[in-house]
Design brief:
Shape: globular
Number of strands: 9
Order of helices and strands: HEEHHEHHEEEEEHE
Largest sheet: 5 strands, antiparallel
Structural class: alpha+beta
Number of helices: 6
């Protein structure tokens, strides 16, 4: 199969939840202390390793794109994720976060990398779920190191406190306009941090978009 980003031979797959997020939240799983994986159709599947196929998308991706090409994106998200989850007081609705304190050198570039990490994950979701969104702009954004103009991110606390540590992603919910997707939204959650990832065609007006961040400017404060 061909890599959906660059078209080369695909020989690897992307994690549904970043491996660094899983390690940070759960440590290294073992046979004695496995992770428990849940979907709508399967409950309590024991996973003794972070390399388990259940933790990865089925979308094809090559090793170069999944490592060297997008490694800066992965590292930027790892740093932002760890910082926001450790924040005191914890991040709350309406909180303003100055990302130039997290990335003091070239803040705009670092936040572009965060944006592109979610472009990669979103692209895998689109292919796996056969969502009617054109995948070409997603691959072009990664290859050309530029923002995807229709992808928005909103960072905040998980919707409700949970007794158990959890990480994962929601289903993608879409709104259609004739035969194409006009709006899509889903959540990436790790511990106490939630990221609402949205796609909207030009002209779409949704409440969530008004407070979301779109990587167009080098501003150093996001909420």
């Amino acid at each position: 199969m061909a890599c959906w980003i660059c078209g080369e031979r695909a020989d690897t797959r992307e994690h549904r939840t970043k491996a660094s997020d899983l390690r940070s939240l759960f440590g290294i799983p073992t046979q004695a202390k496995p992770l428990y994986f849940h979907t709508a159709g399967r409950k309590n599947v024991k996973l003794p390793t972070l390399k388990a196929p259940e933790l990865k998308f089925t979308a094809p991706i090559c090793n170069r794109c999944n490592s060297a090409r997008t490694q800066p994106h992965d590292f930027a998200w790892q740093r932002l994720s760890e910082t926001l989850r450790a924040r005191e007081p914890p991040i709350a609705a309406g909180t303003s976060v100055r990302t130039n304190r997290i990335f003091p050198y070239n803040t705009a570039r670092a936040m572009l990398n965060v944006h592109l990490y979610f472009v990669k994950v979103f692209g895998c979701l689109i292919l796996e779920g056969k969502i009617p969104i054109d995948i070409a702009p997603f691959s072009e954004a990664i290859l050309q190191e530029r923002p995807h103009p229709n992808v928005y991110l909103a960072f905040g606390p998980t919707p409700a406190p949970r007794a158990e540590r959890m990480a994962g992603g929601s289903d993608v919910h879409t709104a259609m306009l004739k035969d194409k997707c006009a709006f899509a939204t889903w959540f990436y959650e790790v511990g106490n941090l939630s990221v609402n990832v949205m796609y909207a065609i030009e002209g779409e007006k949704r409440d969530g978009l008004l407070k979301a961040w779109r990587n167009y400017s080098p501003a150093s404060a996001y909420s």
